[in-house]
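Researcher: Here's a chain I'd like modeled. Treat it as a single chain, no partners, no ligands.
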Amino acid sequence: MIRSLYTAATGMKSQDLNVSVIANNLANVNTTGFKRSRPEFQDLIYQNLRLVGTLSPNGNQVPTGAQLGLGVKTAAIQKVFLQGDFAQTQNPLDLAIQGKGFLQVLQADGTTSYTRAGSLKLDNAGQIVTADGLVVQPALTIPQNATNISIDTTGSVAVTQPGSTAPTIVGTLQLATFQNEAGLQAIGFNLFQQSDASGAPVVGNPGIDDRGTTIQGFLELSNVSVVEELVNLISAQRAYEVNSRTVQTADELLQIANNMKR
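Model: Modeled as a single isolated chain. Structure tokens:
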């Protein structure tokens, strides 16, 4: 009975974490480029009350054993990198990535981070930056007198300047892809960092190899489905209730045992 208390407690703890993940998904339902998380669980070790294949007293082999599970644990909380919906903004510096790939941004400490949030800006030097002022890599500078900015599906950035009828290409945005996107480490602020699990980034122009294409004037929305998350929330709540009921039942059995008289 005491064992069942601890087993049920692991279930309650896991469902509490499940609700926390769902809450974070719902909180970011309107976050540009956000990728939902999904918890994954594993059963804990088993106590062997009777080993499989042992011999019975009459010398026959036991066909099945007796294993008692000791609960559940969190195995992983995985980012799901499914494509989010697109929203048209008509802002020339808004950029969506259709397919695989991440924009590269330079952190203040000199390291490179990666993002799917394409709400880009210009700083006071004309460089293309994120909302937090991080410079997009490779660095591109838009001339001050540019009257129009055009970004095609291959990441080529062109501007139109007064007195010129033909656009001038100022550079090309590049995308980074990873062998294992789920291995990227989320650091907040719509950013990811490379890890040993993700592998090294493969950088190149959009639309080449397996990299996606860039779409100007659009933003990729969060891939969180509110309906799906609410269903998951109800399921987690019911699972938590069932485990708490198990704790209550085990407690009642202990109370009965304690109240036994000769």
